[in-house]
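Section handout, structural biology tutorial.
Before the tutorial, make sure you can parse a SMILES string by hand: atoms, branches in parentheses, ring closures as digits. In the record below the ligand is fe (ii) ion, and the chain has 207 residues. In the tutorial you will relate the predicted structure tokens back to the input. Do not try to memorize them.
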Amino acid sequence: MTVQSTSDPSHLAYTSGTLTLHVDFPTIAYSPEFQIFHCIHQVSGSDAGSTWYCDGFAAAHHLKREYPKAFRILSEYKCYNRDVGTDYIAYDSICWHPILRLDRFGELEGIFLSNHMRGDRFSVKAKDELFHWYEAYYRFMRLLHDHERFLVRVKLQPGEIVVFDNLRVMHGRPEFELKNDEKRHIELIYCDTDSVYANARSLASAK
Ligand SMILES: [Fe+2]
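Predicted structure of the complex:
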């Protein structure tokens, strides 16, 4: 998948505007676990074109310690996520996920949060539950954007690659200026956990 800022974007990612911290593809049932950014072109300026990365699991565990009720609410109620548009082909992806997905032992398994893909439907039964959900969501978003604790800012240079767990490490970017002849071009590659570890074992045993 190519992410390149253009003057005629078909998706928010293809603008030069701010993208708040998110995971990719909360709009499908089997969201990819591994994500690779490969920088092809980058804009000038010391921080321009940089990306935020946030350890969402560290922030969620902090939330669980400090605000257990908020953690419980975000893991119990599901949100409606939707991405609709045209990018090579027309698509309309919809999926329901809790912001914090737990496994059957109650351990955090993945984060499914993308504010720009979150719809206006919730699995709540009463209006006051929605109020508590937004309160919990606000606390978590505040933690995620805590630059001192959970967030780093990295500017990739052409040829550089970063690999991260899409369902743990959230990413976003501050707005940047796109000058006349410059472009910011990142190639994205998604892999599932099974194929990555299968290849890693194969490479290890070939030594
Ligand atoms: Fe993204």
